[in-house]
Amino acid sequence: MANRRQIKLGMFLRPAGHHIAAWRHPDAQADAGWDFSRFTGLAQIAERGLFDMLFLADTSAVPSDDMENIRHLAYVAWIEPFTTMAALASVTRHIGLVCTSSTSFETPFGIARKFASLDLVSGGRAGWNLITSANPLEWRNFGAEPQGSSGVRYARAREFAGVVQGLWDSWDDDAFIVDKPSGIFFDPAKLHVLDHKGEHFQVRGPLNVRRSPQGQPVLVQAGASEDGRSLAAETADVIFAANTTLDIGREFYADVKARVARCGRNPDHVLIMPGFQVMLGESEQQARDRFEFLQNLIPDSLGVRHLSTYIGVELSGYPVDGPLPDLPLTNVNVSRTKMLFELARRENLTIRQLYQRIAGGRGHFQTFGTPKQVADTMEEWVTTGAADGFNYMAPLFPTQLEEFVATVIPELQRRGLYRTRYEADTLRGNLGLPRRESRHVRPRQAARA
Question: How do beta strands 126-131 and 218-221 pair?
């Protein structure tokens, strides 16, 4: 059993829970978006459950101008994720710390410096979730309009990622001599100036942060479009996917792993971790009843607004119990929008049914049942080529997370599918990924290391 493939787990943090009405539940932490003690508590529960990483997503805008209808929504004000992760580094010891920063609004030098610093602060547990941004509500906060098509955004992101990774290799591991008698602090021969001149960026470098304990922080990417898959295959260590069925998961897994191989990379060194929302109960019916309780807390106006935001099309003028109208795809959330339209057509869903479908998981896989049933599902996904692990999404915090750690984790451990202790001091080590060697290290040096 010790040789069985180990499931990797991220814990997707979100104030109160991933269901859009979670904050209204009697057990919810409704103030979790700005009460750091709530984040501390969740992080420590996840670390007790031996999760590989915490993950915080981000957006640079309130989700809508329609304040009347989003007044029901809790996800409108929260602590900025990087600040949160830096603070969580001091109250956790093992769990990885991954958060989102957009290539649309940041600079490569700024991102490289921040995440290299977080890696030092946390002792080698940092990860950057790379995203591009097309939402006009975000762009206007930076005094601009969305720049170009998905292809243009991803071309910029590809160059951006390359610059960041180049800056992360500014210093050799042994560059800092710190020799007091001689007065020599570092070896100039082990400092490398990037001097990048590209289509989108000119960045000289070097980075003024020493090399990461992991070699480089873990790079996470979540694009599912053609451009997103290609970028992930070229650059990512971990891919957060949104796959609604096992078959879709298998297709995505096979496609991306093949792309990774074509890029000359080892497919085993790129982990695919789909979003995975779980509602637990002592029986499957109890789990579904618990979820239905949350569903009944959604006002129609919020559900329609939530769906409209996701697909980038205004739906408030259409009958909520009518079909999703035939509408052109927008430049917002291209892959997720396409997936939702296909889901609505395939299952003949009304607008209400579709917003209820994404109210908890936003298009990610959802499952309901006992700890054994949930463990069965996780085992099937991992052993049949649909996932290397999961980005766990609790519909309600903290109760569902506590229940998952107390019941599902032991069931996976009994099957030999999940660790019983942390194996390493770094996020890469716990994920089973090799340390990133510098591009400046000669092959013989790398082999000795």
Answer: parallel
Of the pLDDT bands very low, low, confident and very high (cuts 50, 70, 90), residue 66 is confident
Q: Taking residues 80-98, what's their average pLDDT?
A: 97
> Which pTM does this prediction carry?
0.90
HSE (CB half, 13 Å, CA atoms) of 39?
A: 27
Tokens of 317: 């003028």
Please answer whether residues 387 and 274 qualify as being in contact, where contact means their C-beta atoms are separated by less than 8 angstroms: yes
pLDDT above 50 (res 449)? no
The DSSP-derived string for 59-94 is -SS-S-S-HHHHTT-STT----HHHHHHHHTTT-SS
Rounded distance between C-alpha atoms, residue 292 and residue 320, angstroms = 18
Give which of 17, 73, 68, 25 is closest to 296, Cα–Cα.
25
Which DSSP helix (H) or strand (E) runs through 176?
A: strand 176-179
Does residue 141 carry a pLDDT above 90? yes
Domains and CATH numbers, the chain: 8-280+361-437 (3.20.20.30)
For residue 407, the 8-state DSSP code is: I
Burial of 431 per CB tally in 10 Å (0-12, 13-18, 19+)? buried
Cα 400 from Cα 360, distance rounded (Å): 13
**Would you state the pLDDT for residue 329?**
65
